[in-house]
Amino acid sequence: MARIAFIGLGNMGRPMCDNLTKAGHDVVGFDVVAAARDAYAAAGGRVAATLAEALADADTIISMIPTGKHVRAAYEDEGGVLTHARPGTMLIDCSTIDVESARAVSKAAAEAGFIMVDAPVSGAVPAAQAGTLTFMVGGTAEGFERARPVLAAMGPKIFHVGASGNGVALKICNNMMAGMSMVAISEVLALAEKLGLDHQTVYDVMTVSSGNCWALQNYCPVPGPVPASPANRDYQPGFAAAMMLKDMRLSQAAAATSGAATPLAGSAAALYQMLVEHGHGNKDFSAVFALITGRLTSA
Ligand code: NAD
């Protein structure tokens, strides 16, 4: 059993805490926003009023917070994790952040004597609730082996993908693929409609043909073929367009820094930006089909 301080009690953090607790770990949660702490306490969770209090007895720290800026502040600021954590504490950041920040925080952690891994997740809130997240872990072999039993309480698929920062690098690549393929299948379905094909026929044939992809098979952007997909409930997420825009921007920043050519992803990112700018950032990212076909209902 680990004594875990969990930083960030948001949409993902809360259910991740619940599964850690169910697995028998001793969890104390902390969030900078009092309302998030209160909501977790009201649901039976144990909360700390300050970060220092959360870290006082912890042997493992997990963070699930929005961006690289937040992660660097939480760990590196005066009064942050690197000042308050007990020597030997294992540090695990599960946030989806930029590669540079992930590598910089891990380096600062190592310099302060801690082992840290980046362990971002694939799978949104339902997977966090069900304990079926996929983890992509960047860090040393020792860090991976120490993180693995804790991560196992939140998801069964745990991959060691290389050195620090490689976890978020792979996560960014994965979401870039998901973002592009959703745009691609949306354009295909829009064209198929104009050519007189119905959605179900396109789905039945393409899912067993060379045009098959995850976005079509599991997250079909038109109502009907996949009953659980957000298209059947006016694009309630699921995975919000604003989140996809954030991840597509991370991919474009990484491409610019590394010199990779990603013209298709750039176009897809522009479409998600349009969706968000039209006031649909809270809709599922598959609403890009409604954007492309001019069927967005007002925000
Ligand atoms: P969220 O906004 O619901 O929650 C984030 C929480 O972190 C907030 O409650 C915020 O107050 C808190 N926070 C910010 N800075 C903090 C700090 N320094 N100390 C303590 N708490 C702090 O976001 P979320 O949906 O839970 O996403 C968290 C991370 O997980 C993001 O990086 C996101 O990209 C990633 N992610 C989200 C999903 C999803 O479907 N929501 C899926 C995969 C990955």
Sum up the structure in keywords:
299 residues; alpha/beta; Rossmann fold; 2 domains; 5-stranded parallel sheet; 11% strand; binds nicotinamide-adenine-dinucleotide; HIBADH-like_NADP-bd; EC 1.1.1.31; 6PGD_dom2; branched-chain amino acid catabolism; NAD
Bound molecules: nicotinamide-adenine-dinucleotide
Derived structural class: alpha/beta
Query: What is the helix fraction of residues, given as a range?
Result: 40-55%
CATH C-level name of the largest domain:
Alpha Beta
What amount of the residues lies in strands?
A: 5-15%
N-to-C terminal Cα separation, in Å? 46 Å
Strand order of the largest sheet: 2-1-3-4-5
Rg, nearest Å: 20 Å
Secondary structure: number of strands: 8
On the 0-100 scale, what is the average pLDDT? 97
CATH architecture designation of the largest domain: 3-Layer(aba) Sandwich
**pLDDT < 50 stretches:** none
Q: What is the string of SSEs from the N terminus onward?
A: EHEHHEHHEHEEHEHEHHHHHH
- Looking at CATH, which topology of the largest domain would you report? Rossmann fold
Largest sheet: 5 strands, parallel
Q: How many distinct domains?
A: 2
What's the CATH H-level superfamily name of the largest domain?
NAD(P)-binding Rossmann-like Domain
Pathway: Amino-acid degradation
InterPro entries: 6-PGluconate_DH-like_C_sf, 6PGD_dom2, 6PGDH_NADP-bd, HIBADH, HIBADH-like_NADP-bd, HIBADH-related, NAD(P)-bd_dom_sf
Enzyme class: oxidoreductase
GO molecular function: 3-hydroxyisobutyrate dehydrogenase activity; NAD binding; NADP binding
